[in-house]
Amino acid sequence: MGDPRQYVVIGGGLAGLASAVWLAEAGKKVTLLERRGRLGGRAHAMKVDAVDDPPDNGQHVIASGYENLFRYLDSVGTREHVAFPERSTLRWPDGRSVTMSVTGLGAIRTLTGLHPDTGLLDRLRTLRATGLLLWQALNQPHDLADLTTAQWFERIGMPARSREALWDWLALGIAAEPVEIESAKVFADVLATGFRLGAKHLTPVSIGYPTTDLDTLYVDGALRVFRERGVDVRYRAVARRIHIVDGKVTGVAMADGSTVPADAVICAVPNTNIGGLLDDLPEHSEIYAAADKLHYTPIVSTNLYLDRPLGTATEFEALIGGTGVIDEVFDRQLMTGRSTEKAWLYCLTTSGAYEQITKTNAEIVAEQMALLRRYYPAAAQAEVIQGHVVRMPKATFSQTVGTHDLRPPQRTSVPSLVLAGDWTATDWSATMESAVQSAAKAVELLLAQPAGR
Fold first, then answer.
1. Would you say 274 and 11 are in contact if contact means Cβ atoms under 8 Å apart?
2. Is there a single domain that holds both residue 141 and residue 182?
3. In a domain, 94, yes or no
4. Domain for residue 313, yes or no?
5. Distance between CA atoms of 403 and 401, rounded to whole angstroms?
6. How wide is the angle at C-alpha 261 spanned by C-alphas 422 and 280, nearest 5°?
7. Cα–Cα distance for residue pair 349/125, rounded to 1 Å
8. Model pTM?
9. Are 192 and 138 in contact (CB under 8 A)?
């Protein structure tokens, strides 16, 4: 006889999708509650009618060390839609550019200084500082949690040119916060995890990208699994409170006054939406306090549909010495092979977009085009056919100094209630891998419990 228990997953973002998929694969009866009319959470495709195109709500990159994410993609049958380029490009406003590689001789140049003005002395200093950076990531100083990433770079003597060409924007991309406020421990933990995975698989961690839209990558395959496994997906289903009686989950109270029966719950909502759901949990006040203190970081993505190509050399290119907040320029033609019959699409992502988030769409498009014109001669005459701006004021939890020990574990004092989400305790910062790793831990906790009511 199968497990008669009813499993409920609250939240249809990536953590919730992975939780529901893996519970269903284990043969459990699963109900997935999503407050919106679609799945995917902060990772989904959109539609721009003017150019008949489905851009993403934000460009994703995927590290080769994302083991749990690849497990999820295998489960939903979309792993083939991730590619890993051999190189990427760094550009300066004066027209100079360099190629960055993480393999072969190119990796040596990356680690000893990518800036075109880097001399022999700077390369030696960079090599020494990079060695210290990695050593201290693996053997962390007791006060690292009290430092910003910028302070850590200064302490180890990382040369300014190497910071400009690699380390500052890499740290920004990892934690979505400027290095002046980002927690050094967050960055160190990610470096340590990447190094350990690289050593485990005897290959350096590299950065890849989806070759399709995010709905195809994350959502469509999950929906297929749900149909095949009988998962009950409920949209516009707003959960208010998880009922707990005598130390056991009994159901989920909904905003419409109904109750969804449940014997076990995975609460996979962002830290900004956790309030009220855990009121019956003895330690709810501590979790709520941590969720509030983690706060959030804004990200703005701008999809620019242009009448001509920019002349990019690689799928994604970093703009160095610009505004200080642009991670990369993504060439969606090279990434996905999309048709350019109507327009060329370039995606620009601004992490830690505290100033940009308040601007109008027109101001953001004008600002990003002005930036592109500084780096790409072809952009000087380019016209914007369509500018598509996606604001995410609460894109991820904030990873500033003092937040490293706030993330709660997946396990709670009630065995049949577990947490998931990128803001819970994992080996990664606010990434897709963090979300899916949390789901893996949450599902493992529930599956370890004896079957039967």
1. no
2. yes
3. no
4. yes
5. 6
6. 60
7. 31
8. 0.91
9. yes
98, β-bridge pairs: 90
Q: Pick the closest to residue 56 from 364, 222, 269, 302 (CA basis).
A: 302
Chain centroid to CA 302: 17
* C-beta of residue 347 within 8 angstroms of C-beta of residue 305: no
| 366 within domain boundaries | yes
Identify whether the C-beta of residue 321 lies closer than 8 Å to the C-beta of residue 327.
no
The two tokens of residue 86 are 């051999």
Local structure of 402: helix, strand or coil: coil
Residue 152 tokens read as 């850590």
Distance between CA atoms of 58 and 427, rounded to whole angstroms? 23
One domain for residues 109 and 199: yes
8 A C-beta contact, residue 168 and residue 182: no
Cβ neighbours for 445, distance < 8 A, ≥ 6 positions apart? 410, 411, 415, 418
* Cα distances (Å, whole numbers) of residue 92 to 95, 113, 150, 286, 301: 6, 15, 21, 46, 21
The residue type found at 56 is D
Tell me what pLDDT residue 61 has. Answer: 87
What is residue 196's predicted lDDT score, i.e. its pLDDT? 87
Compute the distance between CA of residue 340 and CA of residue 349 in angstroms, rounded to an integer. Answer: 21
Quick one: pLDDT at residue 86?
A: 85
Predicted pLDDT of residue 324:
47
Q: Give the integer Cα–Cα distance in Å for 33 and 254.
A: 10
In a domain, 133, yes or no: yes
State which residues form the domain around 120.
103-205
DSSP state of 165: I
CA distance 242 to 253: 6
d(CA 176, CA 21): 28
Name the burial class of residue 362, with classes exposed (0-12), middle (13-18) and buried (19+) by CB atoms within 10 angstroms of its CB.
exposed
- Token reading at 444: 């493992």
CB distance 163 to 196 below 8 Å = no
Average pLDDT, 10 consecutive residues per value, the chain (453 residues): 87 97 97 96 82 82 91 97 91 87 72 84 93 95 94 96 88 84 91 86 81 94 98 98 97 98 97 96 96 90 95 91 65 93 91 88 93 92 94 87 89 98 91 95 95 57
